[in-house]
Amino acid sequence: GAGVSQTPSNKVTEKGKYVELRCDPISGHTALYWYRQSLGQGPEFLIYFQGTGAADDSGLPNDRFFAVRPEGSVSTLKIQRTERGDSAVYLCASLTPGLAALSSYEQYFGPGTRLTVT
Amino acid sequence: EDQVTQSPEALRLQEGESSSLNCSYTVSGLRGLFWYRQDPGKGPEFLFTLYSAGEEKEKERLKATLTKKESFLHITAPKPEDSATYLCAVLHQGSKGYALNFGKGTSLLVTP
What we know:
The complex is a heterodimer of chains A (118) and B (112).
Chain A: E1 5-7, E2 10-13, E3 19-24, E4 31-37, E5 44-50, E6 53-56, E7 65-68, E8 75-79, E9 88-95, E10 107-109, E11 113-117
Parallel strand pairs in A: 2-11
Antiparallel strand pairs in A: 1-3, 3-8, 4-5, 4-9, 5-6, 7-8, 9-10, 9-11
Chain B: E1 3-7, E2 10-14, E3 19-26, E4 33-38, E5 45-50, E6 56-59, E7 62-66, E8 70-75, E9 84-93, E10 98-102, E11 106-111
Parallel strand pairs in B: 2-11
Antiparallel strand pairs in B: 1-3, 3-8, 4-5, 4-9, 6-7, 7-8, 9-10, 9-11
């Protein structure tokens, strides 16, 4: 069965450029999360969508980062004026239905997009 | 603020040498503690969820336990294919929903 997919798998960009990272969640998963993982660290929460709306964007580091999910499925993480410190693996995860029942709270992660800003 | 600390940072075991990984946490009102396995170049893979002190869960050679302050991931008679980074996370309730707050992970290497 199809899992969470992310494209591109690798992205190299120059400092100051704009990038878009895409996430295709598991079909039927209403909740979608973006995390950022630096080398030797655990994933760090960025933003969470429930349906089309950003339910919690408190993890976005600054206003250069923005994410959308216009139809409640695919999500795009957008980074403006990239900086070398933005280099990391960006992970997307979607959630099994039934968030209200925490016993079913299992996040399924994609393989990530490795972003390198030169 | 929720804190998750994992130890050791790295662990090297001989095949068959059992050991335990530790995850200590400080959280106001634990809503769930999660263990994930992460292989190089891949996203984390869900292993276990624990919700209350005293709870235990097992899967093959892995067993996760939970107390009020920490969780252990016990690995019995590990094999080289168990080599990976093991991540612990607590479920954090923000203003509008839930997210996982991860530790830095323990990098496990099992040698033949």
